[in-house]
Design a protein that fits this description.
about 300 residues; alpha/beta; Glutaconate Coenzyme A-transferase; nine-stranded mixed β-sheet
Length: about 300
C-alpha cells in the first residue's frame, strides 16, 4: 500500500494489527473517539502490544486510551479536558504520572470539554483557531499558554475573548456501530465528537461493530457521520468498546469495569491486568474468548431489549 493514497481505496478493510502498525508511529499525536461509552478499548490494547511510544494524546474525555497508555509509559504528552473512567472511578495512572512521575513525568495541556471540541472543529475546518468566551475568568486561561486572550476585534469596548488552537492529530481512531468497506461510517446513537475528530486528523482508522454493505449505508444515509473520503482504514471489531457500552449494540459491563478499576489502582495491579488482557491476548478475538462470548452476547441482549 506504500505510495497509494489510502483515502481513495475502494476497499479499506484491514486487520487491527496492520492498521495500528501502518498508521500509529513513535512520536505521533493521536486522538480517540468516545465519551463515557463508545471508548476505543480494543485498539488501545493493540497499541500496547505493539509498543509505539512518545505519543501525544489529544482528546476531550479519553478513558482506557489515556490511563492504559500512560501506565505503560507510551504517552509523553496529554492535551485533554478530562481523563478517568466516568462512573467507575478515577484514572490512577494519570494521577501517578502527574503527581509522582510514575512511570515517568508527562506534559499536560488542559482545556475544557467544550474548548477541546472547538479545537477539533477548527482542525476540521482547516482554520488555525476558534474563539470563545467560555474560558474567560477560569484558571485554564491563566495556566495554559496555548490559550490566547485578545481584545474583541469587533466590539473592543465589550472586553476580551479567548482563542484556542486547532487540533490536527496525526491519526484518529474512531469506534462506531457500522461502516462499509469504503469507510462510510455510521453511529446508531450518540457519536460524541467523532465527526470533527475524524475530519481534523491526517489519517483515520475506523473500527466498527460490523462492516455492512454500501446499500445498507445508503438506506440510512442520514446516520453517516464520517464520509469515506476522510477514512484510511476500516476494521471490523465486534465488542471493540468492551467493557463500555455501544448504543443499540451492547450494554455497559459495569461489574467487569469495577473489577478492573479495583485491580489497576496499584502499579503492580495494573501490570498484572495488562499482562493478562493485553500481552496475554494475541488479538481482540482472543480477548473476547477470555471475557467469554456468552457474557458478551448477554450484554447485547440486555441492550437490545430496550429497542424492541
Amino acid at each position: 500500500m506504500d505510495g497509494i493514497d489510502s483515502k481513495k481505496l475502494l476497499d479499506k478493510r484491514i486487520s487491527l494489527k496492520d492498521a495500528i502498525a501502518k498508521f500509529v508511529f513513535n512520536g505521533c499525536s493521536i486522538a480517540f473517539s468516545g465519551m463515557g461509552g463508545e471508548q476505543v478499548v480494543a485498539p488501545t490494547y493493540e497499541i500496547i502490544r505493539q509498543g509505539q511510544k512518545d505519543l501525544t494524546l489529544i482528546g476531550d474525555s479519553p478513558c482506557e486510551p489515556a490511563d492504559f497508555l500512560i501506565g505503560t509509559g507510551q504517552i509523553k504528552r496529554m492535551e485533554v479536558a478530562w481523563a478517568a473512567f466516568a462512573v467507575a472511578g478515577v484514572s490512577q495512572n494519570y494521577r501517578n504520572a502527574v503527581e509522582k512521575g510514575i512511570p515517568h513525568e508527562i506534559e499536560v495541556c488542559e482545556f475544557s470539554n467544550y474548548t477541546m471540541g472547538l479545537r477539533f472543529l477548527a482542525g476540521s475546518l482547516g482554520i488555525p483557531f476558534m474563539a470563545t468566551k467560555s474560558l474567560m475568568g477560569s484558571s485554564l486561561e491563566k495556566y495554559n499558554d496555548w490559550i490566547k486572550v485578545i481584545d474583541d476585534p469587533y466590539k473592543k469596548k465589550e472586553g476580551k475573548i479567548a482563542l484556542v488552537p486547532a487540533a490536527n492529530p496525526d491519526v484518529a481512531i474512531i469506534h462506531a456501530n457500522q461502516a462499509d468497506k469504503l469507510g462510510n461510517t455510521q453511529f446508531l446513537g450518540f457519536s460524541s465528537n467523532a465527526e470533527n475528530i475524524a475530519r481534523s486528523a491526517k489519517r483515520v482508522i475506523v473500527t466498527c461493530e460490523e462492516i455492512v454493505s454500501t446499500n445498507t449505508i445508503r438506506k440510512n444515509s442520514a446516520l453517516t457521520a464520517i464520509p469515506q473520503y476522510v477514512v484510511d482504514a476500516v476494521v471490523e471489531l465486534p465488542y471493540g468498546s468492551h467493557p463500555w457500552n455501544m448504543p443499540f449494540t451492547y450494554a455497559y459491563d459495569l461489574p467487569f469495569h469495577m473489577e478492573m478499576i479495583a485491580q489497576i489502582e496499584t502499579v503492580d495491579g495494573f501490570k498484572k491486568w495488562i499482562d493478562k488482557w493485553a500481552y496475554g491476548c494475541k488479538d481482540h478475538a482472543d480477548y473476547c474468548e477470555k471475557v467469554g462470548w456468552q457474557r458478551l452476547h448477554k450484554l447485547s441482549s440486555v441492550e437490545k431489549q430496550f429497542y424492541k
